[in-house]
Amino acid sequence: MIKCPECGFINLDASKPCSDCGLDLIDALRRMPDEEKQKLYVKGSPREPVIKGVQKVIIKDFDMPFGSMILFMFKWGLAAIPAIIMLTALVVFALLLITGALTSVSK
To answer: What is the pLDDT of residues 88-98, one digit of tens each?
Structure first.
């Protein structure tokens, strides 16, 4: 991992532009003296396993218009309805089993 000399963001790969400010890290490293280059490498940081086709996503800022946020929350509420129905059915089924078992034991 390498820290961007421009913005200080820690990038996983020095062969790509900075994920935060877009600085060409290879070009920036070529122009720097060796002493300064060594300061940019982050030592002791654990490397995450690389899974082919999967990238880590970090959300820094979330900007959504108010109308879109209301629509998103409405859709989320509609999507929760089947889950509520299934949970209710499971609770009712469990209560029926418990009450059935209790009534058969008491007879």
So the answer is: 999 999 999 99
Contact 37, 44 (CB under 8 A): no
Distance from C-alpha of 8 to C-alpha of 20, rounded to nearest angstrom: 9
For residue 107, what are its two tokens? 């007879």
Taking the alpha carbons at both ends of the chain, their separation in whole angstroms is 71
- Evaluate if pTM is beyond 0.85: no
Buried-exposed string 74-90: b where 16+ CB fall within 10 A, e elsewhere: eeeeeeeeeeeeeeeee
List, in sequence order, every residue forming a beta bridge with 17; answer none if it has no partner.
24
